[in-house]
RNA sequence: UGGGGCGUCGCCAAGCGGUAAGGCACGGGUCUUUGGCACCCGCACUCGGAGGUUCGAAUCCUCCCGCCCCAGCCA
């Protein structure tokens, strides 16, 4: 154990908070919040925010609240509120009993709105939505005051109360903040605070038919909870004056500081909920938890660990610059984690039958294999060896190029933990010419994989005993999109046009070593020389195990092949 | 030619007036019963550009260029 404390990499938000604590702002107290809207599944971009908010709070001996920003019932659903909580917990964070909802504050929010009306700072506007847009002006022209802007306080109070009482049709009126229709910041051109929407809310049912807007509800919710630092993404920077305006207008004692950071983008994928929802709805993926999705549910199913995701979030840093992180970094993080933890195992994805001609037919040996060379504590296991085996088709070439040093006619290689074998004959299908079997011999002196005479071989192959292996389905996943930035539609192509047709390859009949029998759903392994795999959470059964490939191993041979091909 | 924000290596990212950290990727090598892992070496005389201030500038000033966000009764 090292005595040096781990110091997380610096970032501007941590710096701000550290300075605030040092200056005893908020009496040195730090409270953040993670405020998802329950209108979709959480993705890796949310993970960045979750790690930031919970991480910073913990670092400064504060807490992080969990709050659903549920102010738009039309788009929200309990399916999402359940999945979101499960995902945050899975990621490894705990909000104790501090689970809140913006809807918890509807009554309070209403009272504050009444207060603003009484003070002449808010009014009921009866323009249609189209008229409101027209009155708002444009980026370069100021807006015009609504003709309803000068309604009396009493009339506003009466109307607002009747809005709540359900006397008006949806859209007939809205409550607006009276700020400045000429502001160069469009958000301050009398923003809507409440709209009428006869939609059943997943928590408040039909109690309300008016719902507060984000800008109005969010800051007040933060203030009610005593949040000190309200961390959000860059697109809210223009809203900060409004965030501050409401809190100042109400003269609320707790006035949290809003701080914005750049959201995460990842290469070869899309991150917006709208796009992810489209992939799900149009069935380009099997669901929100499809292992190709950048959702936490998808990544969990793919085999990613919470640790690897947290580590990734720490490594990418926090800034205000728009950035797209190379997905290779994410893949590096899971490989790094799995290398330490995953038991090694042998699995043949594309089996090629091998008969060891000089090995007795009825003989079976139990050979000892190391479970994890990175961790001796993980012990060893026995792997059965017999006369008929399967090796990977890719590990044999009849006419190999110079740099290929696996099996080929006349060549000797090692079978991992077993014996040296030499390929004597290639058996082909008479009609198709397809290689259907290899006839080999083994050297009994090399049991365990070492040759007493010091003879070297250039390759070690993984294998399974045909009679003992169990069958499994293996799903090979690749990037969902075939271009680094599918969201960039400047080429005139919709992001869907870049879907990778090879993002999923299903291998229905693979052969894996018998120790994998009964492997529990969610358990992770390294298939030696192949990659990291995870027993599928949904579709795997004891009779027919299903393994998802989380990520391949780094593969320098593949790089050579690719380089030569060019 | 409205407002806001951002520009440091292919991708992230430290740096905050004292002479360019780190990670990923990439290239080379050592080791190897995983073409894995580990380890070693290389990878920005330069910080969007041009001026200026200074003994000294990625850091300060000026102008310019580029990119992103905002005209939901979405969040």
Describe this protein with a few key phrases.
566 residues, elongated, single chain, 7-stranded mixed β-sheet, 13 helices, RNA-binding, 3 domains, Ribosomal Protein L25, Chain P, 23% strand, alpha/beta, Rossmann fold
Structure, explained:
With 566 residues, this protein is α/β, with parallel strands linked by helices. 26% of the residues lie in helices and 23% in strands. It has three domains: 259 residues, Rossmann fold, CATH 3.40.50; 164 residues, Ribosomal Protein L25, Chain P; 116 residues, Ribosomal Protein L25, Chain P, CATH 2.40.240. Strand 19 and strand 20 form a beta hairpin. Helix 7 packs across helix 8 and helix 11 packs across helix 12. The longest helix is centred in the first third of the chain and has 16 residues. The chain is elongated, with a radius of gyration of 31 Å. The protein binds one RNA strand of 75 nucleotides through helix 5, strand 6, helix 7, strand 11 and helix 12.
Write the layout of secondary structure elements.
Layout: H1 12-22, E1 31-34, H2 44-59, E2 63-68, H3 78-91, E3 99-101, H4 106-118, E4 122-125, H5 129-136, H6 153-165, E5 174-177, E6 192-196, E7 210-212, H7 214-225, E8 229-233, H8 240-249, E9 257-261, E10 264-266, H9 273-281, H10 296-302, H11 306-316, E11 323-325, H12 327-341, E12 344-345, E13 347-348, E14 351-356, E15 365-370, E16 380-385, E17 388-392, E18 412-415, E19 420-428, E20 435-443, E21 460-461, E22 463-465, E23 470-477, E24 504-512, E25 524-527, E26 531-535, E27 546-552, H13 556-565
Parallel strand pairs: 1-2, 2-3, 8-9, 10-11, 12-25, 14-20, 18-21, 23-27
Antiparallel strand pairs: 4-5, 5-6, 6-7, 13-24, 14-17, 15-16, 17-22, 18-19, 19-20, 23-24, 25-26, 26-27
The protein binds one RNA strand of 75 nucleotides through helix 5, strand 6, helix 7, strand 11 and helix 12.
């Amino acid at each position: 154990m090292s005595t040096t404390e781990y110091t997380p990499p610096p970032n501007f938000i941590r710096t701000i908070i550290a300075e605030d604590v040092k200056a005893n702002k908020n009496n040195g107290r730090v409270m953040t919040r993670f405020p998802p809207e329950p209108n979709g599944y959480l993705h890796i971009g949310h993970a960045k925010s979750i790690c930031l908010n919970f991480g910073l709070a913990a670092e400064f001996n504060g807490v992080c609240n969990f709050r659903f920003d549920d102010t738009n019932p039309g788009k929200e659903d309990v399916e999402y509120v359940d999945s979101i909580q499960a995902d945050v917990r899975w990621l490894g964070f705990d909000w104790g009993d501090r689970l809140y909802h913006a809807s918890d504050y509807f009554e309070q929010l209403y009272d504050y709105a009444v207060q603003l009306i009484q003070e002449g700072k808010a009014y009921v506007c009866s323009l249609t939505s189209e008229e409101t847009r027209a009155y708002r002006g444009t980026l370069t022209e100021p807006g015009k005051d609504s003709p309803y802007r000068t309604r009396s306080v009493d009339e506003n109070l009466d109307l607002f109360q009747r809005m709540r009482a359900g006397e008006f049709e949806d859209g007939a009126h809205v409550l607006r903040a009276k700020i400045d229709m000429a502001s160069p910041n469009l958000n301050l051109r009398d923003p809507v605070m409440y709209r009428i929407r006869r939609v059943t809310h997943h928590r408040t049912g039909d109690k309300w038919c008016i719902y507060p807007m984000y800008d109005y509800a969010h800051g007040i919710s933060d203030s009610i909870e005593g949040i000190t630092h309200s961390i959000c993404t860059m697109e809210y920077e223009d809203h900060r004056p409004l965030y501050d305006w409401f809190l100042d207008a109400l003269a609320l004692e707790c006035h949290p500081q809003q701080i914005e950071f750049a959201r995460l983008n990842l290469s070869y994928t899309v991150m917006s909920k709208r796009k992810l929802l489209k992939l799900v709805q149009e069935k380009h993926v099997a669901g929100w938890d499809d292992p190709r999705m950048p959702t936490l549910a998808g990544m969990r199913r793919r085999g990613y660990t919470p640790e690897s995701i947290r580590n990734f979030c720490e490594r990418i840093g926090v800034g205000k610059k728009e950035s797209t992180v190379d997905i290779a970094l994410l893949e590096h993080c899971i490989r790094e984690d799995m290398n330490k933890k995953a038991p090694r195992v042998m699995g043949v994805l594309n089996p090629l039958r091998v008969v060891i001609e000089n090995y007795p037919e009825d003989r079976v040996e139990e050979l000892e294999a190391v479970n994890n060379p990175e961790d001796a504590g993980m012990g060893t296991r026995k792997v059965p060896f017999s006369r008929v085996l399967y090796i990977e088709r890719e590990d044999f070439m009849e006419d190999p190029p110079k740099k290929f040093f696996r099996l080929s006619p006349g060549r000797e290689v090692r079978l991992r933990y077993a014996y040296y074998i030499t390929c004597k004959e290639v058996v082909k299908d008479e009609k198709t010419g397809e290689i259907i079997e290899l006839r080999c011999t083994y050297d009994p002196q090399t049991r365990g994989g070492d040759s007493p005479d010091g003879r070297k071989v250039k390759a070690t192959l993984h294998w399974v005993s045909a009679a003992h292996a169990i069958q499994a389905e293996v799903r090979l996943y690749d990037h969902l999109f075939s271009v680094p930035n599918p969201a960039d539609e400047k080429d005139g192509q919709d992001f869907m046009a870049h879907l990778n047709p090879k993002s999923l390859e299903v291998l229905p009949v693979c052969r894996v070593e018998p120790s994998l029998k009964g492997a529990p759903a969610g358990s992770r392994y390294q298939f030696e020389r192949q990659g990291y795999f995870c027993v599928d959470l949904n579709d795997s059964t004891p009779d027919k195990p299903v393994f998802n490939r989380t990520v391949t191993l780094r593969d320098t041979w593949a790089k050579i092949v690719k380089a030569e091909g060019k």
